Amino acid sequence: MDLSIVVLNYRGKNLVKELLKNLAELDLPYQYEIIVVDNASGDGLKEALAENFPQVKFVANSKNLGFAGGNNRGIIEAQGQYIMIMNPDLAILSKAIEKLYQYMEKNPQVGLAGPRLINADRTIQYSCTDWPDWKLPFFRRTALGNTKAGQKWQDKYIMKDLDHYQNSYVPSLFGACLIFRRDVLKKVGLLDERYFMYFEDLDWSRRFWENGYKVTYVGEAEIIHLHRRESAAESLLKSLFSKTARFHIISFVKYLLKFRGKKLPVIG
Questions:
Q1: Which domain holds residue 73?
Q2: How do strand 3-9 and strand 82-86 relate by DSSP bridges?
Q3: What one-character DSSP code corresponds to residue 182?
Q4: How far apart (Å, rounded) are the C-alpha atoms in residues 113 and 6?
Q5: For the chain, which ranges sit under pLDDT 70?
Q6: Are residues 142 and 73 in the same domain?
């Protein structure tokens, strides 16, 4: 098996169906499988797949395991030499998967890679990041990000100075779409399920670097991600009490505690 594609669903049945149609239309030149994992959505996805996509393997979780736990269930089932994890809110209108696959084939030193994600209006969706510091939840989740200091910090964090149309080694990649080698999991391990939501991708990227594998932003591969960030423009008080912000802060604290006292990996 060349490639396994893992799609994680949580109450997004229609998005999953559209992505599966999209993948079928690509006519990928590989022996591949698609594994859809459902985080106890109760949205009728199992029946919809059985009727319209019987070739897709379906994994049902008895409860919502979050991003890490849900994707890990699919990764464990995967048989491909390469594995891709995908959010269902993606639209692939180009040869992005082939470009990512070929990049991995030509660069054996790379363990993890991700495409250039763009918004529906084709603007860049900054999806690779520098290593964060303690300011992250304040500048990324609240209106403090709109201050001069906040904008400067964010520009560095989301690597605005990077040429996002070229391939580059980066500290970390967002988890909306990633490709990796199945055999590296023996050293790197699965996504850390201590994070229910947020920072699983940062943690994982860091562990790839720590175990001697490079992490690459493949700017030559373009995928639309229909994602909208929440909370960033809210007041400090409102955002700190929102559910998404609480997950964000809790996960960030877990990340800081896990890697406390450890040196940051050298990129390159």
A1: 1-88
A2: parallel
A3: G
A4: 15
A5: 228-241
A6: no
